[in-house]
Amino acid sequence: MNVDNNRILKDKTFDKSRWMQMPRNVVVGHDALLQIPGIIDDLGVAGPILLLSGATTMQTVGARVAGLLEGRPVTTCLVGRITYDEIQRVEDAAKEAGSVLIIAVGGGRVIDTAKVVSYNLDIQFVSVPTAASHDGIASSRASVVTDAGNVSVAAQPPLAIVADTGVIATAPHRLLAAGCADIIANYTAILDWELSHRLTGEAISEYALTLSKITAEILVKNADLVSHNDETAAWIVVKALFSSGIAMSIAGSSRPASGGEHKFAHMLERLAPGVALHGEACGLGTIIGMYLHGGDWKGIRTSLRRIGAPTTPKDLGISNETCVEAVLRACEIRPERFTIFDTGITREAAVAVVEALYEV
Ligand SMILES: NC(=O)C1=CN([C@@H]2O[C@H](COP(=O)(O)OP(=O)(O)OC[C@H]3O[C@@H](n4cnc5c(N)ncnc54)[C@H](O)[C@@H]3O)[C@@H](O)[C@H]2O)C=CC1
Ligand SMILES: O=C(CO)COP(=O)(O)O
Ligand SMILES: [Zn+2]
Predict the structure, then answer these.
(1) The whole model's pTM is what?
(2) By CB count within 10 A, which of 3, 24, 100, 123 is most buried?
(3) In which domain, by residue range, is 35 found?
């Protein structure tokens, strides 16, 4: 059943009520894909399946999953950018096929699309990440691209997650490094949340905040291990992505894992579409956010470098000017979410922080 997980009941004695939705089965490891038929049976969801994937991933992992589902009624559907139009198109396909279950095989965009479609149609979905590139694999939030920038919407968390470390380890290292950067972003996301708590009175969840922070700390402690593209690295990063997603589910918002560095990343995506991976842009935003907070931004940069993630606009293939623009205009994204990027940064200060990124 889909729920508004921020629902507040106007009760006279106690005015809070929150549904925290979590995945039921989480299978991580070598050849985890082979468990998919058994997982579907265990979930007790019988009926037509919509197999959702990206153009690239459908040809590889998507095709393998289709093979494993042989004998069951399966309709396949490809997803592109995650916009409301695209969501509508997938919803129509699911309705037409009478789907009772979506299996989403791919990167963050495929999984977010499945989350929103399953929420809107009130059907279940299974998340099969093909890369450890983002921490949306388990969360109950989805990020949708609109003309006004990315919006974070309530969505359905997966009923099951199947993360095959063999598959994930064969994805390009760039994707794994991006996932690590998306986790390292938790450092500034938390600082921003605490700042907003102090300055605007925004409520914080200590549990969500602490889980988010510990997740980033464990990942950084293992930075050398995750600098390789092997199953050990995939295992470590998938667990971190899962944990970060759960922090978001506890909070009922992406706040524990998305602060000013994400607003910067979403603005950068608007200014230079498709140039950087989501996690890569967030990593750069984290260095900038930490600099603006007066924290150990060089420490963040060192961790990102050890993992093999980009740390300058040049690494990302964007100009310094575009980066400055993204710093200045990050506040336009989700203006209700107060962060260090919403404190009136001058152009001079934005130029200075972007120049600092190149300091040795
Ligand atoms: N809902 C949430 O809580 C969160 C949502 N997100 C969203 O997720 C998206 C970013 O996710 P990404 O995975 O970075 O982007 P993506 O879904 O665009 O995938 C990036 C690229 O990786 C390729 N790819 C995936 N698996 C591969 C494999 N095994 N081998 C070769 N190529 C492979 C895809 O084809 C694609 O070209 C953004 O839309 C972002 O807003 C990110 C974090 C959290
Ligand atoms: O990317 C996220 C956490 O890593 C969450 O997405 P939003 O920034 O769209 O809320
Ligand atoms: Zn993110």
Answers:
(1) 0.94
(2) 123
(3) 25-170
* pLDDT greater than 70 at residue 352: yes
Residue 146's beta-bridge partner residues? 149
Distance 297 CA to ligand 1 centre (A): 26
C-alpha triplet 34, 27, 93: angle, nearest 5°: 70
Beta-carbon contacts of 251 under 8 Å, excluding residues fewer than 6 positions away, are 205, 208
Domain assignment of residue 13, yes or no = no
145 and 51 part of one domain:
yes
- As given in the structure block, the two tokens for residue 210 are 């602490």
90 has binding-site annotation: no
- Tokens linked to 15: 């005015």
- Higher-pLDDT residue of 147 and 167 is 167
Q: Of 117, 150, 170, which residue is a domain's last? A: 170
ipTM: 0.97
Query: Under 8 Å CB-to-CB from 45, ≥6 apart: which residues?
Result: 100, 101, 124, 159
35: CA distance to ligand 1 center in Å? 23
